[in-house]
Amino acid sequence: MAVLVTGGAGYIGTHTLVELSAAGYESVVLDNLSNSCETALERVMEITGDNYKFYKGDIADREIYKRIFEENDIDACIHFAGLKSVAESVSFPLHYFQNNIIGSLILVEELFKRNVKKLIFSSSATVYGEPAFVPITEDCPKGEIPSPYGKTKSMIEEMLMDIAKADREFSCALLRYFNPIGAHESGRIGEDPNDIPNNLMPYITQVAVGRLPRLRVFGDDYDTRDGSGVRDYIHVTDLADGHVKALQNMKKGVSVYNLGTGNGTSVLEMVKAFQEANGVDVPYYITDRRPGDVGECYCSAAKAEKELGWKATRDINKMCEDAWNWQKNNPNGYR
Ligand code: NAD
Ligand code: UFG
């Protein structure tokens, strides 16, 4: 029995392959490499000593599933494949709806045709919009979602919920990630954005390694401890482990879980933590708020702990060390 991992060559996918191997699962990867490269998969094989069957293709390509299912005994799917840039989605909404929503719809149809009815979906804290309360629990109402990217996540969630209502055999876990950062402790795999990073940690590491001059801190006038934005950063290996625990605890119907640490860290605290953990300087300046950003977003991950037996164990210091270990050993990412 194998797990089909869509988007397995990407940042979270590669780290999840490592944890799946450690837990004894066989994985099969489907990825079109639109935001990743095969080197990442080679590095995963180097870490785990396992071989993964890799299908280079699009989740919306119905033909590719014929080969995948003929050649493998797939029992469940972890669905990471998707485009994830908030800014890009504002400029190219159609592309995001096509890739993420239509792609997911075709994937689920093809799985159902073969009676594969266990699915784990990568959702996001973005579905909560400006959160009604913090710490955010899973029953926090969804808010106004500021980007087409975020809307694709919410719409796919809704689609999966409706499918589960109609088919009682469907087991589906919606994992709402908070802010994954860091890298595998080997320093062989990590986050490798194509252009100038949008997200905080890859921006910090690229400043630290000299690829970018200074970090811009977006706003110091939020209603937070020091005025900068607060997020729930989670080590990508803890996040990956959350997928293994979800897979081991699949139950019929849709289950929603927040995957975060439950702790909020501000931008300025993160800069300080990174400098202290690694003894490197991160020059920064304060600028205007970034449109669409919320001030504070952190979760209660109590439900995942109770139902899945999962809890994030790596702290901010470890996240900073591992992010830097990856960046300094791979100053140009996988290139
Ligand atoms: P990533 O871009 O590194 O990985 C996504 C992978 O999917 C890439 O390898 C890409 O080539 C592949 N892909 C995209 N569209 C595809 C398609 N149509 N067919 C086949 N492959 C396709 O992103 P990531 O950070 O690893 O994120 C994984 C998932 O988690 C995404 O769905 C993302 O939206 C979601 N997510 C990420 C974050 C985050 O901060 N990284 C937060 C919340 C949710
Ligand atoms: N930030 C800066 N400077 C930067 C980048 C970010 O100050 O160069 C700040 C942001 O203003 C925010 C914090 O750092 O306060 C975190 O920003 P990120 O861009 O790293 O993360 P976001 O919380 O904005 O978004 C991330 C993912 C989204 C996902 C969301 C869910 O990028 O895909 O988490 O919470 F939807």
Query: What kind of oligomer do you see?
Result: single chain
SSE run? EHEHEHEHHEHEEHEEEHEEHEEHH
Low-confidence stretches: none
* Order of adjacent strands in the largest pleated sheet: 3-2-1-4-5-6-11
Unique bound compounds? nicotinamide-adenine-dinucleotide, uridine-5'-diphosphate-4-deoxy-4-fluoro-alpha-D-galactose
Strand content: 15-25%
Q: How many strands?
A: 14
Structure notes:
Helix 5 (93-113) runs parallel beside helix 6 (148-166). The mean pLDDT is 97. With 335 residues, the chain is of the alpha/beta class. 40% of the residues lie in helices and 19% in strands. Strands 3-2-1-4-5-6-11 form a 7-stranded parallel sheet, sandwiched between helices. A 3-stranded mixed sheet has the order 12-9-14. The chain has 11 helices and 14 strands.
Please name the defining characteristics of this protein.
alpha/beta, 11 helices, 14 strands, binds nicotinamide-adenine-dinucleotide, binds uridine-5'-diphosphate-4-deoxy-4-fluoro-alpha-D-galactose
Can you describe this structure in just a few lines?
With 335 residues, this protein is α/β, with parallel strands linked by helices. It has 11 helices and 14 strands. The protein has helices spanning 11-22, 38-48, 62-71, 86-91, 93-113, 148-166, 200-208, 236-248, 267-278, 302-308, 316-329; strands at residues 2-6, 26-31, 53-56, 74-79, 118-124, 171-177, 179-181, 215-218, 230-231, 233-235, 253-259, 265-266, 284-287, 296-297.
